[in-house]
Amino acid sequence: MLLALVLNLLSCKKANDWEVDASHQRLFKSLKFTTGVVGATSVEINYTKTVAAQKYIFEFSKDSLQFAEIVKTVEILADTLTPFAPSTIPARVEYRTLFDNLDGLTEYSVRMKGVNTETGEESNYSQLYFKTAAEQLFSKLNIGVDHIELYWPVTDRVTHVSVFEPVKNTELQKITLSPTNKADGHLKIEGLRPGTSYRVAIFNEENERGAKTVKTLGIAGGEMITVNPGDDIPTLISSAVAQGKTNIVLVFTGGKTYDLANLLIPAGISNLNLTGTSDAGGNYPKLNLLGLQLTDLVLGEVVFENLEIYANGSSFLISQDKNGASVAAYTFKNCYIERLGSGVVRLNNAVTVKGINFDHCRVDKIGGYGVVNIGGSTASVDSISITNSTFTDLTTQLMDVRVAVGKIVVGNCTFYNQNAAMTQLLRFDTARLPFSFVGSNNIIAGTNSGGRINATSYDHAGFALNVSFAGSYRTNELQIERTSRDFSEITIFSGTAEDLFVNPMNKDFRIKAGNGFGGRGTAGDPRWFE
After folding, report:
1. Which of 27, 85, 235, 443 could join 524 via S-S bond, C-beta 3.0 to 4.6 A?
2. Do 144 and 182 have their domain in common?
């Protein structure tokens, strides 16, 4: 019996001492595998360490976890990685890696495995799905009456540009990019119609890398009249009207100066557009224009765009006080307007205007009536919109409105008063207050030439109109004259205009880096965003 027991003990093995199937000999895969920031052409992958892995292999495919075709493979050596979140437990050490040169607005799957290059052992795959955002490759657009110029960072990952009708997205043109286009990062599309909306997109093969919907200058179906310095503009317009052309587009050439004095527009027109083209250096035409006078009492739109207007101290650019006069809108787009002694637009008496609009403009040194002045009590105005613009050294006020306008919007504007003083930003008649006011995302800065300022010309309490400046900021050197007329819901920046802007004295209103400004990228004129 003793012999049998000895033999039995000798024949026993340890309980867990079995052979390992080579097909299951592998590394443990990462505990964490997620996306961080997903951009238009890049993705950040967050993952934990695969213990004993000497390299990581990432494989990308354009599908949803099928990995039918690998379009991108990246190998990363473990000893080149810097931990984002170190840990004393190896399997919890976290890395973050950015992968770029992806296509925008594209579905991707990515999988990763760790590999021990000495033993050949690998981990199982960790995998995930993500979709990149839409890419915006266009950095700048110059829009003309019959053309659009596109600019983008130089890259060889572009093949063509397409022009679409924006509503149905019907392709109108497909332009193959030449080696010169690619080297310059530039294309000029010609032969377009004035006053017409287009969607333009740039592609790398089938992948859209950027798109913009834009509208050419001028009036759709309008008669384009190219104006040279010294031309008799009233005669040019009268000649077009005699031929039945009543929608007039006056085209002024970039880089040229036009001495127009007081410009009288003859009778017979339906809509009027004064537009400027830019020259090779990006310069717009300069108009020495003391005022614009309309012969017709009833008119459609009057539009100024892409112009530098120098009034040289004259009273108003537009002044309409004839009873029964009616205009659909006075609109200023991408204009520089300087030195009007009283104001830009003045309406008085029984005048009807649907809209007064300033967008992407720069306005400097305007007199005490305000940029917009609506007097009397019988004028009718549906809306006033002042957006995405910069105003410097306004005297007395931005606007003086004595009638009940349907809606007034002052949004994303930068105001800087250093050499002139405003008493208030808004002067309203309390018996005829606007029905609605929006004053969001503005910046109001400067010393106001030492003068104290109010948001409005009246105490807010007791009136139903909500005059809010939520999302707006003012610098701390600006002194408020009366608390009851302060800028409601505005945020005070703890610094002066010099602390806030790069160079306000020279009209550079980009925001300084590192100054803690909370409205960076949201408040003020967007042209100063970086």
Report:
1. 443
2. yes
